[in-house]
Amino acid sequence: MRVLLTGGAGFIGQHVTRELIARGHEVRAVDSLRADVHADPAWTPPPGVSFEKADVRDASALDRLLAGVEAVLHLAAKVGLGVDAQDLPDYASSNDAGTAVLLAAMARAGVKRLTLASSMVVYGEGLGLCRQHGAITPGPRTEAALSAGQFEPPCPHCGEPLGPALVSEDTPLDPRNAYASSKVAQEFYAANWARLTGGSVAALRYHNVYGPGMPRDTPYAGVAAIFTSALKRNEAPKVFEDGKQRRDFVHVRDVAAATVLACERHAAGVRAFNVGSGTPRTVGDMARALAQALRGPEPIVTGTFRLGDVRHITADSSRIRRDLDWAPRIDFAQGMAELANA
């Protein structure tokens, strides 16, 4: 297929580009190369990939780029949490308005296949299991509780501790920061577009993506990149809260494979897919694995916190395994060693 990839110069976008090429697709890439993401504003695409520096809010550029395209993979977005109220306009403009402009351009061009990069953050705190009340959506964690070191969200009905639970795609959406809200909006806009045009949408809710090429020392760096950067300076990685936050760390090459499979195989209706490894780990586990791989200092658990961070979020990825015949191939130890030595 001839495809348009937005955010093609980004961390995940570059891996998706390689996967598309390996599977024989013709790739057009677009990226704004915004300075807060890209240290090198003169990014060069791989051979055979046509590239244009443009913002997805530029309708005229999109009309030109979409000519003759059969499918769009939309990865361009402002990421991070959005912990300051002053961040809100940029999330709304970059992610929400940007997606709306893209969808309108797709409608004009008659392109009816969309693969959307969404995120596990749409679930907020996800689900917990209460012995009395069953599966529960935890309430928001308060600054007072976090300051007191009470990191586990209690059952909002009885106050008892909650056990772990995996989130499926049917878990209610509960965005709790600006980035999460913008991802929910992207999914809703895409569903609106699909109803109006008869198009298809595969919304891939990526869990914690890591791997070679992660941005470092920028607002866009993930926790794995932050830990690795510290260790390479021979500094102990600093772990927030008590280090027991559960996540589903999934390797970027596995994510790229899932993204391209969704583009190829999902051709009707609107469908969300969790993309995770299926093996929950803690943030502390990751810090220790990286410290061991780099023979660096042991992690320091700081007890500090960020409002808007979720405590636990881990995926049930059985739908994408079943519907798209995808499975992760890179295990945690292998992936951590590769990241540490990248």
Could you give a quick summary of the protein structure above?
The protein is of the alpha/beta class and 342 residues long.
Which stretches are low in confidence, meaning pLDDT under 50 for 5 or more residues running?
A: none
* End-to-end distance: 32 Å
Please state the overall shape, judged from the principal axes of the Cα atoms. globular
Please list the strands of the largest sheet in the order they lie side by side: 3-2-1-4-5-9-14
- Average pLDDT for all residues: 92
Q: What string gives the helices and strands in order?
A: EHEEHEHEEEHEHEEHEEEHEEHEHH
Rg calc: 20 Å
| Number of E-state strands | 16
Q: Which structural category do the helix and sheet elements fall into?
A: alpha/beta
How many distinct helices? Answer: 10
In helices, the fraction of residues equals 25-40%
Strand residues, percent? 15-25%
The largest β sheet comes out as:
7 strands, parallel
